[in-house]
Every structure is written in C-alpha cells, then in structure tokens.
Please model this.
Amino acid sequence: MEQPNQTQRVRICDIADELGVSTATVSNVIHGKTKKISDETVGRVQELLEKRQYIPSMAGILLAQNDSRIIGVVINNHEKYEGHVLEDVFIASSLNFLSAEIEAAGYFMMVKTTTAITDIVRFASMWNLEGMVLIGFCEQDFNKLREAMHVPFVVYDGYFKTPGRICNLIVDNFDGGFQAGTYLKQLGHKKALCISDNGICMDLSRYQGFQKGFGAANTDFMQIPMAKTERRIFYGTHLETLKKYTAVFAVSDYYAVDLMQFLQEQEIRIPEDISIIGFDDTPICQQVVPALTSIKQDGAQRARLALKTLAQLKSGEAEGTTITLPVTLVKRKSVKTIE
Model:
C-alpha cells in the first residue's frame, strides 16, 4: 500500500486505509471513545498516529472539545524585567513548579506574557483554556476580569479588598519581613535598610513587617530604580548612605544579589561590613558567595494549591477566597552577628 506523503498533513482516512480499519474507529481512538474497540486495535491506531506525526493536528481537536486540557499561565511582563521576564529567578522557579503539577495532573501548560491585564480575556477565549494562573499583576480590577469570562483562574499575590469569585494565593509577606527584621535585631544590628523598586502591594507589606520586627525607629526605606543600569548609577550616588547601615533587607533575592555584587565591586565585604537578607529563597541564593540568607516561600506547595483550587472552581466546589501560605527564614552566610 502506498504510504501517505510525509510532507502533507496526515488525515484520518490515511491512517484508516493503512491499518485497514474504518475512519470511525480512528476518530474514536483520537477522541478517547475506546470502550467498544479492542486494546490491540487501539494500540495499533495510537502507534501509527505517532509514527505518521498526526499528533500535532490533534491539538486542534483538543481545542474544539469542552475539555482542552490546557492551563494558561499569564505573567505580567512588567517594565522592571526589561524584556527578560521569563529569566527572572522567581518567575522561572514558579513556572518550573507549575509545569510539574500541570503535567502530573494530565494537562498541558501554555505560557503568555503581557503588560495588559485586558489581554487575558482574548487569550482565554482563543485557546479555550480550562483554567489560568495569573502571576505578577498587582491590580484592583480582578473582579471586572472575573465578570468578563467564565474560565476559572487563580491569582498569585493579588491585591484587592475582597476576593469575590477569585482565588488569591499569597504568601505571608508581612510575616516574612517580620522574621527578617527580628533576626537582624537579635543579632545586634542597630540600623537597617529595606530596598524595593516600589512602595505598594506585597513589597509594602514586607517592609511593614520588617519595621515591626526590627523597630520602626531604626529602619529606613530606599526606593531603587527598576532598570539595572540606572540602579547601578543610583547605588554609586548613594554609596556613602549605604555604608551607614550594617544590614539591608531586599524585598527579592534578585535585588539582594544585585546589591551584593555592586558592594563587592566596591570592596565592601558581605557580611563583614554589611549583612544582606533576600526574599523568595530561589536557587540563586545557594549559588552566590556568600550564600544568601532569605525568606523562603514554598513554590511547590503554591503550585499544588493552584491546580487543586482550579479543579474545585471548575466543579463548583469552591468559591473565591484568599489563601495565605507561610514563609520561613533560611539562614546562610550573608548575615553576621554584631558584637
């Protein structure tokens, strides 16, 4: 029998002809309707579908079904990432955990980056998504988004007064800052600085917790530029100010490591001259020298909760809620005791 041309799209009838079965049989295997088909025939059809590279065209069939098996992960491509959002250590780590959970649940992950939350509705409709995880949007209009579409979604670190029909998965940002401040105070530090590129949402909560743990009278806040080049110039201009502190709490590991590198280039020793604590406990913490003390949030636990909650939202078993995950201080070598 003549084999189908591999440069052309393989059709169901091509598979059926080659195996000597009906097109209905092939179609039923593709759609998972195999109760009345022998295991041997199902195996033969599936094997040839893969061999003839029919699998890519199966995506269209999945999209046309009520259950596409696709979970969309939408990430805010904020200007601070300077076009490299997927390279950010926290974002990359979150995607890694989500990918593992989505695959384990038998779904496919589709990632989209955008700067406009309004793009999400079109994205969900275009791909017939079964659910979504939204990361990095510090917005007040999630409820408008909820009303605009019926696809269930969960939010990482959303900030809104009431969750309504939205599930918001946050970490205890205030307690994370509190643990960092308390730890530095216990080690004898008298004056500490918190750095962030903004003073709202989760970063504000982390700073407020830090103030509570260390003492508001002895903590200062420094808003740093988002762009790396501008930030380096800023640090150079404020170098003498930085030297006045024995400890710095950065609201992310990225900013903590970035500051460490700048200070070390100025021959300022970590932690002998300045102690530094980050937030997130991403893998980079153990790759820098000295290893970075950080506030750990459990990315694997949040990913598991995201998938579990999406399933509950879809089945109607759950309504919108805010779930706060605990954080813990991980002590490493970037902090010293003040004698």
